[in-house]
Amino acid sequence: MAVVRRRSGSLTSLREGNRKRVIDALRRRGVASRAELARITGLSRSTISTIVGDLVDAGLVGEADGQSTEGETHAGRPPVMVSLNSSAGLALGIDFGHRHLRVAVSDLSHTVLAEAWREMDVDHSAGHGLDAAADFVDQVLEEAGAERSRVIGVGMGLPAPIDRATGAVQDSSILPGWVGVDAAADASRRLGMPVEVENDANLGALAELVSGSAAGRSEVVYIKVSSGIGGGLISGGRLQHGVAGTAGEIGHTVVVDGGPVCRCGNRGCLETVASTGAVAELLSTSRGEYVSTRRLLELCAAGDAAAQRLIADAGRAIGVAVANLCNLLNPECVILGGDLSAAGDVLLEPVREVVRRNAIPSAVEAVEIAAGILGERAELLGALALVMHESDRFFASQLDREAA
Ligand SMILES: [Zn+2]
Fold this sequence. Notes:
Helix content is 43%, strand content 18%. The chain has helices spanning 14-29, 34-41, 45-57, 126-144, 183-191, 200-211, 270-274, 276-287, 293-301, 305-329, 345-358, 361-366, 378-389, 392-403, and strands spanning 31-33, 61-65, 80-84, 90-96, 100-107, 112-119, 151-158, 195-199, 220-225, 229-235, 238-240, 333-337, 368-371.
């Protein structure tokens, strides 16, 4: 029986709740006047003044004369604008793929200060992977000339569902060496920093929402099409996890009756016909030679008819699943990311065509289907964005220190 884990640092008191609303508004708006903050949060001007004053005293928020983005006019002087102080702390992002490890450090305005990448064995153990990540963390901090003590938190992405109740990595044949490991707790022990773990497709969704194709949207579906197929669902601007953390597993939607057996044990899952491995394998058979994902994409870009046909077939299969999803969720955009999204319209057009045919007209009218713009760095940037989304804890503890 799953025990619901109370997320540490959740803010309960009214004062903390109000402070979180102000910080959230500044995170979303970047810069705002006190009057704008009052309007956005629905709090009174005097409450806003008190909260902003505390944040300024703690060095978390800076003030500057500026132009209000809402065209406010004040007799004789421009309004004082406030923004989060991007140098108030640093974020670390760690992205584990099934063949790579990426680590980056950024300031709180999402500007990446240093980044490192390496190829890594598919079936590495969690311990081996986390050791490598810890080495990379030292390396990027040194490269950025950054002190460890300024890191407010670490976001970490894994290509597996994460159990929301226990924090454990769930069954996955992509990272078999990680199953059952509480990766956040383990990484936190090794690094001596707070770590949040998230599924990789969820991080891709977050990154595209914060600074990619889905910027400014709030009802978003992100689909990562690589060696596995995963999805990240955003509703009301927030990631949706479901009760056990597996929401968005679109790769295991059945699209072929009696199709090939999937790693999940079912038959005919989307992943068995539209993952990069499945498509490359079909092309390997037709060409009588081994075709890697990179080669598949090169052939597609060069206009190879078989490569394009097979990627279009994958697009049509993805379209079947996306059409159902549009009927259920009515998203404003569906973003395709992952390795296969590099095929561009060869993949996207068949997806759009099937969605137009299969989904109900009102859902079709509402949705834009586009490729992600962050490419292979999407999950890493999402890991950094996760820290900003989870930063209430840091702000709360820093303010408590100031008050003490
Ligand atoms: Zn499956």
